[in-house]
Q: What sequence folds into this?
């Protein structure tokens, strides 16, 4: 089947760096996206990688290795407000998008 | 720009009833996708509408149907509600291409509770 796997939870301290991994198994590949969702909120787009390498957007970076079917989201200078769920997502078979189950990030003071 | 708006925000229905959820996409967006999100899970793709046609469907039964209007707004209809349909229903809008090829904007969702 087609799926994305992510750790269920990650805990880090304020000011630290955290990496959230995502491995995928899909037939065909159209890039990997990352979304953030706070409790009770809407998912918000963070980044998209179509090609191998690192994409940087402020404190957030995302990496993709298509040969390893692997990507990660890197959050630097963690802040309390970064406590949220993070989802990787990809498009499969046309215009269907699948999401991972999400990684819940807890940032501690 | 109001972004993606969904209505209602919360809804309680009884098993067997029917429900209609509504979505207005972000200004300029022509593609609307619907997702079901159970607590603690990622969004599950229901279907996508483009140019008033359903162009992709996920693994959901025919009880789930939709519509897109000429102004790109969309409705999700669920018939014969089951307890397991209780979830957050999210609408996402984007431009033309697949959701992950362009940035998708999500609404705040409709929390449906079936009792």
A:
């Amino acid at each position: 089947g087609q799926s994305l796997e992510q750790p269920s939870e990650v805990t880090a301290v304020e000011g630290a760096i955290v990496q959230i991994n995502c491995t995928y198994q899909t037939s065909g590949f159209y890039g990997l996206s990352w979304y953030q969702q706070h409790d009770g909120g809407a998912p918000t787009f963070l980044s998209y990688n179509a090609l191998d390498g690192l994409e940087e957007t402020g404190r957030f970076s995302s990496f993709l290795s298509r040969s390893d079917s692997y990507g990660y989201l890197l959050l630097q200078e963690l802040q309390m407000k970064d406590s949220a769920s993070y989802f990787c997502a990809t498009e499969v078979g046309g215009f269907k998008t699948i999401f991972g189950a999400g990684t819940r990030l807890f940032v501690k003071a | 720009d109001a972004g993606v708006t969904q209505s209602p925000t919360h809804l309680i229905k009884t098993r067997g009833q029917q429900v209609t959820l509504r979505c207005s996409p972000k200004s300029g967006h022509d593609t609307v996708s619907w997702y079901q999100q159970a607590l603690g899970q990622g969004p599950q793709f229901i279907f996508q509408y483009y140019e008033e046609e359903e162009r992709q469907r996920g693994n959901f039964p025919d009880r789930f149907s939709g519509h897109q209007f000429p102004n790109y707004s969309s409705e999700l209809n669920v018939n014969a509600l089951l307890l397991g349909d209780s979830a957050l229903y999210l609408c996402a809008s984007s431009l033309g291409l697949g959701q992950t090829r362009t940035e998708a904007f999500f609404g705040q969702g409709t929390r449906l509770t079936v009792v």
User: Anything to note?
Assistant: Chain A touches chain B through 26 residues (CB under 8 Å). The two ends of chain A are 40 Å apart (CA to CA). Residues 36 and 86 of chain A are 5 Å apart (CA to CA). The mean pLDDT of chain A is 94.
